[in-house]
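Shape matters. As here.
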Amino acid sequence: MGTVGFLHTADAHVRAFRALLAERDPRLREAHLVDTGLLEAARREGVEAVGDAIEDRLRRLLRDGADVVVCTCSTIGAHAEAVGRAAGIPVLRVDRPMAEAAVRAGRRIAVVNSLDEAAATVHPLLRECAADYGREVELVDVECNDTWASFEDGDLLTYATGVADAVRRAVLGSAERVDVVVLAQASMAGAAPLLRDLSVPVLTTPRLAVEGAVELVVGAAL
């Protein structure tokens, strides 16, 4: 049927995306490439500094048979899409399907991030998607930068709990109601089950990205 490639900047994402792809369409093959140095260099030197490295990793995934590559890192996702477009490589940034769903869900969007770099990339994406749909949006930042160290240490439960606590404080403590919450980074997906008590949708990037990638691969095969 085809192969979905994944470019990761954290080992923790491999298992999660593997499970989602198997659940969505077990007929599809997968190819994973993890390079933790991409995120480190992008944060240290700027995302433009890793453009050549991103293209190299994308081409490796193509050689592994990938029909489309999902870049699972929000920080480098926009640049990966641009690099892929210039190189003729189909790339889907992990947060695009989520952003499209968010602007369809409502005007006032809570944007949750634990890295400033991720927020800097998802804001323009949400506004781009809103313009595409002819909608106005108001973005409400929910920052939980103090939780990121737990993710880097591999303590995913503490990380997810910290993210969920920050969201709950922001959403329930605000005088103005938000229409939808977006967990802007793939690393945050584990917080979603902890937020089932909220009365608004909580969107995550991994499942929606896999759905989008499968549609691209299956559509290309038809």
